[in-house]
Each structure stands twice: as C-alpha cells, then as structure tokens.
Specification:
globular, TIM Barrel, eight-stranded parallel beta sheet, alpha/beta
Length: 364
Amino acid sequence: MGTRFATTGVVDCDVHNAVPRLSALFPFLRDSWVDYCQETGVEGFDPAFYPPGAPLSARPESRVGDGPPGSDPAVVRTHVLDAAGARYAVLNCLYAVQALHNPDWAASMARALNDWQAATWLAADTRFRASIVVSTRDPHAAAQEIERLVGRGFVQVLLPASAAAPLGQRSYWPIYAAAEAAGVPVAVHPGVGGANPLSPVGWPSYYVEDYACAALALQSQLTSMVAEGVFAAYPGLQVVLLESGVTWLPSLMWRFDKNWKALRREVPWVDRPPSHLIREHVLLSTTPFDAPPALDRAWVDRFLTQLGSVRMLLHAGDYPHWHHGDAPTALLEQLSPPERELVLYGNAARLYQLPEETGCTPEP
C-alpha cells in the first residue's frame, strides 16, 4: 500500500468501488427498468477500460471473494481506511452506465447506482464519501440528480473523459450550473461515456496504447472547458482531473498561453491567460504520478514552480488499480511538512468541505 503517514488527516481522493453484479442495483430501480434489463439479457456495465484479468486493473490483495475488486465495503475499508490510514475516502464508481445511448435508461441506471452507493457504502462507514454518477446524455436530468444528492455524503460529480462531445460545449452547462450552485466540484476520469475513443486519433489496437495515452483525453477536455468559457460562466466551479498524470500540465499551460495570445479575439470570454484560469479552477490527483525514477527536492521545486501551486494536488491511492510504482510516496517524502499537509488533507478538506485536521508526519 506504500508508506503510511501517521495521522488521522489523510484523504484518499480516488478510490474505486465496484458493483458486484447488476442485480445489486435492482432494489433501487423501477420494476419496469428491472424487467427491461432482464428481458434484454444485459449482464452488467463493468468498464472495459479495466479488463478484469489485467495486472494494472487490480492490486493482488484486492482480489478477494467472488465479486470484482472493490465490490466489498468491508475489504475496501480494511485496505484503504484502516491499513492505509485514510481519514476519508472519496469513491469514484466507474460502472459504465454513461455509455448507454438510451438517455432514459442511462439516467435511471445512474440514479439507481447512486442510491446503491448511499445504501451500501455511505451507510457502511462514515469515512466514505462518494461521487455522483450522472449521464451526460441528458444534462438536465444530470443536474436534477446533483440537486437530489448533495448533502447526503456525495461530494463531487463524476464525468467520463471520453464523452460524446468536448465537455466544454454548452450542452453540458446545466451540469456545471448545478455543481456550482451545490458547491461541489466536477471530476473527470478516464472512461467511456460516448462513441469516441480515448485517443484523439481513433481506436488503438492494443490495451497498452489506450492506457498509456489516457491523459490525452483529459488534456483535450481541459482545453475545451477553458476555451468554451465554462469558467467564465461558472466562476465558482472547481474541476478535478483524476488518474491522468500530473507533470504534463505545465507544458500544456505554456502552449495554451502562447496560442491564446495570438488567437484571443476568437474567445473573448477567456480574458486572462488560460494558465491563470487553470490554476484557479483545476486540481489533479497524484496517482499515477509521472515523475523521473529518482525524485529529489530540486526536481520537485522546478515542477511546483511550473505547476503554480502545491494547492493543485490531491492525494490519491487509486485503489484497487495497480500502477507498479511509488512515485506519489516519493513526492510526499520530498515535500515540506506544510506542503505534505496540503496534499494529504488540506486541499481536499477545502475542496470537499471536510473538517480541518492537521499533523501529517511519516511513520518510520
């Protein structure tokens, strides 16, 4: 699980809970939709972008019982909250109901999934928080789902990076309006919510291509949200980029600023350099952390200077996914105690409106 930090103030911002089987959602669905699922013979919506047998899809210790990794609240509690020492864990369920083309079915499945999270996970441990799963097929229904669930243990809205259209486009704005009004961030995670591939050049031949290039979709979506004026329309909105790497952002901001200077008349609502808007509105999770093998403080200083602020980083374990590396822990070890406190707890406490706690020091 990596180095444990001896503190009650750690927030793991990216933990993936899984639906054990489709029938687990039936108690939360209308009878007509249960019948529809059974009559069509659908077996479930487990995400194809994490193949069950792929080594990267699950840590060995998470493969217990008959269900998929992450499907048992007691096991996740033991591994993430107790063994890894997290004070809170933010659940990001990747059950791919957003990929359904039927907008009514997709919205109903998202609602059932959220009610299942509340009954099965949030009720199991007060340290769990959850993301609201919505379907972008019907942004107005998604906005209603956000309004329904805020204040019940749900702390952000979860969107897949590969959507039917760039996420900055105005058809999605009801989602951002609802999130801003509710005071919760919108998180974007690699995943499929439309017919578009994660790659900007088409469908790859191999899984390793898809996985290695996951950050490209996040970069495109971030560029879209800035250029389309999302942050001008919703100045209180915060966006979290999950499981997409971190160190690519400074170079994107540099290129975006340079091109904006020449083309700013095209997007007059972007009235400041894009890097300013990104630093004000965007945070990133630290797993996976794309860093050189040997981290030292000089490298970290350069990175933080280019990024703009340590306040943009959120600690994440990405359970049960397995990245075969300890770069996030190595980063924490290079940070000063105040910086480490922000990454481990302070930034998330501010973002998710959690109780403030302090005192992060590494255990020997």
